[in-house]
Amino acid sequence: MSTEPLIFHIDVNSAFLSWESADRLRQDPEALDLRTIPSAVGGDAQSRHGIVLAKSTPAKEYGITTGEPIAQALRKCPGLTVVPARFDIYLEYSKRLMDLLSDYTPDIEQFSIDEAFLDMTSTIHLFGSPIDTANLIRERVWQELKFTVNIGIAPNKLLAKMASDFKKPNLCHTLFAHEIKTKMWPLPVGELFFVGHSAKQKLVGIGIHTIGQLAACDVKYLKHLLGEKYAVLIHDYACGIDSSPVGYREPVNKGYGNSTTLSRDVEDMETARSILLSLSETVGARLRRDHVLCDCVCVEIKDWDFHTTTHQTTLKCPTDSTTLIYEHACRLLEEFWDRTPLRLLGVRATKISDEGYLQMNLFESEQSKKMKEMEKAVDHIRSKFGTDSVKRASFLKKDRMVDHAAGKEKHMKQ
């Protein structure tokens, strides 16, 4: 059994387009493979509405990018084939991929619908060398599921994810400690995981153009530029440091979440905190309604360029408290948001347990007990007289962005 950590990161190549193509060919083997022509998933070609969610390799040659309007993509390539998204099909293919990956290790973290981390430390000896095992997985995915993946192989999650983003498609790459200097440090600083558009501009503004230059920079200068926690995080990443474990994530139907697409992009922490509070109130109320507790809080953001990022924390004690969920959500956002303008914010509570299993916290303060009773009382009033019957004072002078956040609940467990 290996004692050195070994992490694989699996990333589906052009996931929605790949799954759309695979499903069409499954239904009709004579169908045209969308991956071989300029094509895109998302929106409506006739009305020219919507955005590009995924594009084929031939479409990339026309300069088409994920997130751009369909109308703009069609101007670049008038012959572009555009098909609407079918998320039920994509969820099915995602599940089939996770089922296949579970043949190699029980330690899997599904990072998104088309990405997963595998902790291979305890099982790699069953299959062979890391690169041979990764190629075996890659070939099985193609033979059995009919789409391609990139696989990054490294001693931690950060390096594995960086490695999977090297040359695509359908390839495996390593990024071990001795390879960081030659493989990662020459890359543009904007390619480092968690470095968004805003942070990239600030770093380039002080002469940091590559990941290697970021790694060589004294972190105290970065703290003044980017804030203490975020500066330490990306400096560690630039040095290849990441101690986060591959952790199990609850399926969507075993959590409670709320997210909102914002009426305008948000750039300041004060406004973001107000929205997080509104979202946390909905999540906390639903936990209390169902008499369950969460052991994990996750914050999701999507920036103006449609890049989605999540950050989560495990709680010391399970909770259903709006106040605690909100406090953890704010801390998470401060840790990983680089102030790139946001168009979506979300809060998720996972690792759900029945409140009957919670042991009495001997150190719970009287203030904490009163807060719980107050939140339950507010829940009761709102259930009887409507959501707007009780409002926090902090919301009274906020604009409609906060009201919009409260009304866009995502039901993750029904």
Automatic annotation (TrEMBL):
Q: Does the keyword Nucleotidyltransferase apply?
A: yes
Q: Which GO terms describe its molecular function?
A: damaged DNA binding; DNA-directed DNA polymerase activity; magnesium ion binding
A GO BP term, please?
DNA repair
Q: Where in the cell is it found?
A: Cytoplasm
Going by the UniProt record, its keywords in alphabetical order are: Cytoplasm, DNA damage, DNA repair, DNA replication, DNA-binding, DNA-directed DNA polymerase, Magnesium, Metal-binding, Mutator protein, Nucleotidyltransferase, Transferase
Q: Where is the UmuC domain?
A: 7-196
Tell me its cofactors: Mg(2+)
Annotated GO CC locations: cytosol
* Catalytic residues as annotated in Swiss-Prot or TrEMBL: E115
Q: Where is this site: Substrate discrimination?
A: F16
User: Does the keyword field hold Translocase?
Assistant: no
Short name of one Pfam family for this protein?
IMS
- Per the UniProt entry, the Enzyme Commission number(s) are 2.7.7.7
Cofactor-binding details, from the entry: Binds 2 magnesium ions per subunit.
The record lists Mg(2+) as bound by: D11, D114
Coiled coil region boundaries = none
Catalytic reactions of this protein: DNA(n) + a 2'-deoxyribonucleoside 5'-triphosphate = DNA(n+1) + diphosphate
Regarding protein family, the annotation reads:
Belongs to the DNA polymerase type-Y family.
Q: This chain belongs to which protein, by name?
A: DNA polymerase IV
The uppermost taxa in this organism's lineage are: Bacteria, Bacillati, Bacillota, Clostridia, Lachnospirales
Which gene name does the record give?
A: dinB
